Amino acid sequence: MASTQPDHDHREEDDAPAAEDEDTGAQVAPVVKLEEVIVATGEENEDPVYDEKAKLYRFDKDGNQWKERGAGTVKLLKHKESGKIRLVMRQSKTLKICANHLVLPGMSVQEHAGNEKSCVWHATDFADGELKDELFCIRFASIDNCKKFMETFQDIAESQKREEENKEATTAADALNKLSVKDKKADEKAAEDRPVAGKEETNTDAEKKTETPAPST
Fold first, then answer.
1. pLDDT beneath 50, residues of the chain
2. Rounded CA gap, 12 and 110, in Å?
3. Is the CA virtual torsion 99, 103, 109, 115 positive or negative?
4. Contact 140, 151 (CB under 8 A)
5. Longest C-alpha distance within the chain, in Å?
6. Among residues 87, 103, 117, 111, which one has the least CA distance to residue 155?
7. How far apart are CA 26 and CA 175, in angstroms?
8. For position 115, what pLDDT does the model report?
9. What is the C-alpha to C-alpha distance for residues 89 and 146, in angstroms, rounded to an integer?
10. Domain RanBD1: where (predicted)?
11. Any idea what DSSP says for residue 1?
12. Does residue 77 contact residue 43 with C-beta atoms inside 8 Å?
């Protein structure tokens, strides 16, 4: 006769909690050891003057339209030794360079017509590995960010112009100074070579005194 009582023994076994994994204290060494790799960006000798997220466009003359270059962080970097400042922008995901040029004296940036968050400027760019004349347009998230970029860019261009003018003035002054020194030395040499009248007369008198008088007959 089959039993009608529940199988408590099996249920208790099923309901019993699983045994916890024991900590043996063993340490497993990683199969591959990863070493820290230092990636050079080319910006190690430069100090950031400005950086902000934006989207960059370039004007395609053949298609007569604006084409997107990428979205990322635009930077203005000052070289620690030369003092020159360049604009660099990389795409945020791929880090591909989409703009790379010096901010030169006489450059200007203007607000893009009809959009206060955007501005445009001309530059000789080297992002593609060769110098190209480009017309850039950059768009920021806010009007304030765009104005700050324009002010910083313009201040740098004007300061570069003043430095260039000062260098030219210094070079011209040095050249004039060298010419003045040469003229002075030439005058001194001419004065040394010029015969002194008083000295010649003195020598002549001395010669006359030393002459032996002719005997009288």
1. 8, 217
2. 82
3. positive
4. no
5. 194
6. 103
7. 79
8. 94
9. 15
10. 27-162
11. -
12. yes
Q: Which two tokens stand for residue 28?
A: 């497993």
pLDDT of residue 209: 53
- Given the structure tokens 């703009």, which residue do they identify? 99
State residue 184's pLDDT score.
67
Q: Are the C-beta atoms of residues 138 and 55 closer than 8 Å to each other?
A: yes
Q: What is the pLDDT of residue 164?
A: 72
- Is the CB of residue 138 less than 8 Å from the CB of residue 54? yes
Place of tokens 């009809």: 114
**Both structure tokens of 181:** 């020194």
Q: Which two tokens stand for residue 56?
A: 């960059």
Residue whose entry in the numeric block shows the structure tokens 């110098």: 131
Model confidence pLDDT, tens digit, residues 32-77: 777 776 667 788 999 999 999 999 999 999 999 999 999 999 999 9
- Domains (range + CATH), the chain: 46-172 (2.30.29.30)
Strand order in the sheet with 85-91: 97-102, 85-91, 65-79, 46-60, 132-139, 118-125, 109-111
Amino acid at 191: A
Position 22 scores a pLDDT of 63
The residue among 67, 42, 43, 45 whose CA lies nearest residue 56 is 67
Residue 64 falls in which region: left (phi positive, over 0), alpha (psi -120 to 50) or beta: left
